[in-house]
Amino acid sequence: MRPDAASGATPSSRPVAGRQADPGLPGMLWRGARGRCPACGKGRLFAGYLKPAPRCECCGTDLSRIRADDAPPYFTIFIASKLLAPFVFGLERAFAPPLWVHAVLWAPVITAACILLLRPVKGATIGLMLRLGIDGSEGGPESGRA
Ligand SMILES: [Zn+2]
What we know:
Layout: H1 3-9, H2 13-21, H3 24-33, H4 71-95, H5 99-132, H6 141-145
Helix pairs in contact: 3-5, 4-5
The structure holds zinc ion (ZN).
Residues 37, 39-40, 42-43, 56, 58-59, 61 line the site of zinc ion (ZN).
Protein backbone atom coordinates (compact mmCIF):
# COMPACT_ATOMS: atom_id res chain seq x y z
CA MET A 1 0.00 0.00 0.00
CA ARG A 2 2.58 2.57 1.09
CA PRO A 3 5.95 0.88 0.62
CA ASP A 4 7.75 4.15 -0.09
CA ALA A 5 6.94 5.72 3.27
CA ALA A 6 7.95 2.61 5.23
CA SER A 7 11.16 1.97 3.31
CA GLY A 8 12.16 5.63 3.16
CA ALA A 9 12.17 6.14 6.94
CA THR A 10 14.13 3.05 7.97
CA PRO A 11 17.41 3.29 6.01
CA SER A 12 17.76 7.05 6.24
CA SER A 13 18.40 7.27 10.01
CA ARG A 14 21.85 5.65 10.24
CA PRO A 15 23.51 7.07 7.08
CA VAL A 16 22.40 10.62 7.94
CA ALA A 17 23.98 10.36 11.40
CA GLY A 18 27.21 9.02 9.85
CA ARG A 19 27.24 11.72 7.20
CA GLN A 20 27.03 14.50 9.80
CA ALA A 21 30.14 13.21 11.57
CA ASP A 22 32.02 12.43 8.36
CA PRO A 23 32.79 15.49 6.18
CA GLY A 24 33.63 13.30 3.19
CA LEU A 25 36.53 13.79 0.84
CA PRO A 26 35.58 17.31 -0.36
CA GLY A 27 35.03 18.43 3.23
CA MET A 28 38.40 17.14 4.37
CA LEU A 29 40.13 18.75 1.36
CA TRP A 30 38.42 22.07 2.11
CA ARG A 31 39.26 21.96 5.81
CA GLY A 32 42.89 21.23 5.02
CA ALA A 33 43.03 23.98 2.38
CA ARG A 34 41.76 26.45 5.01
CA GLY A 35 44.54 25.41 7.36
CA ARG A 36 42.20 23.56 9.71
CA CYS A 37 42.45 20.01 10.97
CA PRO A 38 40.90 17.83 8.25
CA ALA A 39 39.39 15.50 10.86
CA CYS A 40 37.47 18.03 12.98
CA GLY A 41 37.75 21.33 11.07
CA LYS A 42 38.48 23.30 14.25
CA GLY A 43 42.10 22.87 15.28
CA ARG A 44 45.02 24.42 13.41
CA LEU A 45 46.69 22.20 10.84
CA PHE A 46 49.98 24.10 10.63
CA ALA A 47 52.48 25.09 13.31
CA GLY A 48 54.39 27.26 10.82
CA TYR A 49 54.02 28.29 7.20
CA LEU A 50 54.27 24.71 5.93
CA LYS A 51 55.12 22.62 9.02
CA PRO A 52 52.14 20.59 10.18
CA ALA A 53 51.23 20.77 13.84
CA PRO A 54 52.23 17.60 15.68
CA ARG A 55 48.69 17.01 16.94
CA CYS A 56 45.32 18.69 16.55
CA GLU A 57 44.63 20.81 19.63
CA CYS A 58 40.88 20.10 19.42
CA CYS A 59 40.40 16.45 18.45
CA GLY A 60 43.90 15.07 19.09
CA THR A 61 44.44 13.67 15.59
CA ASP A 62 48.11 12.79 15.12
CA LEU A 63 49.23 15.05 12.26
CA SER A 64 52.96 14.41 12.69
CA ARG A 65 52.78 11.02 10.99
CA ILE A 66 51.49 12.51 7.71
CA ARG A 67 54.36 13.11 5.28
CA ALA A 68 53.17 14.83 2.13
CA ASP A 69 56.74 15.24 0.79
CA ASP A 70 56.79 16.50 -2.84
CA ALA A 71 53.11 16.12 -3.62
CA PRO A 72 52.09 19.67 -2.56
CA PRO A 73 54.80 21.42 -4.64
CA TYR A 74 53.93 19.21 -7.60
CA PHE A 75 50.22 20.01 -7.32
CA THR A 76 50.99 23.70 -6.72
CA ILE A 77 53.14 24.02 -9.84
CA PHE A 78 50.50 22.16 -11.84
CA ILE A 79 47.67 24.41 -10.62
CA ALA A 80 49.66 27.67 -10.96
CA SER A 81 50.74 26.80 -14.48
CA LYS A 82 47.16 26.02 -15.51
CA LEU A 83 45.90 29.27 -13.96
CA LEU A 84 48.57 31.52 -15.48
CA ALA A 85 49.18 29.89 -18.87
CA PRO A 86 46.24 31.67 -20.55
CA PHE A 87 47.67 35.03 -19.48
CA VAL A 88 51.18 34.15 -20.65
CA PHE A 89 49.98 32.97 -24.04
CA GLY A 90 47.47 35.83 -24.29
CA LEU A 91 50.23 38.40 -23.78
CA GLU A 92 52.39 36.67 -26.36
CA ARG A 93 49.57 36.50 -28.85
CA ALA A 94 48.44 40.10 -28.34
CA PHE A 95 51.77 41.92 -28.20
CA ALA A 96 54.55 39.42 -29.00
CA PRO A 97 56.95 41.08 -26.55
CA PRO A 98 60.64 40.09 -26.37
CA LEU A 99 61.48 37.13 -24.16
CA TRP A 100 63.09 39.29 -21.47
CA VAL A 101 59.68 40.95 -20.91
CA HIS A 102 58.14 37.54 -20.24
CA ALA A 103 60.97 36.66 -17.86
CA VAL A 104 60.75 39.94 -15.94
CA LEU A 105 56.96 39.86 -15.78
CA TRP A 106 56.12 36.20 -15.20
CA ALA A 107 58.94 35.03 -12.93
CA PRO A 108 57.72 37.08 -9.94
CA VAL A 109 54.05 36.46 -10.75
CA ILE A 110 54.50 32.70 -10.95
CA THR A 111 56.67 32.72 -7.83
CA ALA A 112 54.06 34.70 -5.90
CA ALA A 113 51.26 32.42 -7.12
CA CYS A 114 53.18 29.33 -6.00
CA ILE A 115 53.95 30.84 -2.58
CA LEU A 116 50.29 31.74 -2.08
CA LEU A 117 48.99 28.37 -3.26
CA LEU A 118 51.51 26.09 -1.56
CA ARG A 119 50.04 26.21 1.95
CA PRO A 120 46.39 25.56 0.97
CA VAL A 121 47.48 22.87 -1.45
CA LYS A 122 49.58 21.21 1.26
CA GLY A 123 46.64 21.38 3.64
CA ALA A 124 44.35 19.82 1.06
CA THR A 125 46.95 17.14 0.37
CA ILE A 126 47.14 16.30 4.08
CA GLY A 127 43.34 16.15 4.13
CA LEU A 128 43.40 13.78 1.18
CA MET A 129 46.05 11.60 2.84
CA LEU A 130 44.10 11.48 6.11
CA ARG A 131 40.93 10.58 4.24
CA LEU A 132 42.61 7.78 2.31
CA GLY A 133 44.57 6.50 5.32
CA ILE A 134 47.94 7.27 3.71
CA ASP A 135 50.72 8.48 5.99
CA GLY A 136 53.51 8.81 3.42
CA SER A 137 55.85 6.29 5.02
CA GLU A 138 58.02 4.49 2.51
CA GLY A 139 58.09 1.10 4.19
CA GLY A 140 54.36 0.45 4.21
CA PRO A 141 51.88 0.52 7.06
CA GLU A 142 53.91 -1.79 9.30
CA SER A 143 57.00 0.44 9.32
CA GLY A 144 55.11 3.45 10.66
CA ARG A 145 53.82 1.57 13.69
CA ALA A 146 56.99 -0.24 14.65
ZN1 LIG B 1 41.15 18.09 14.81
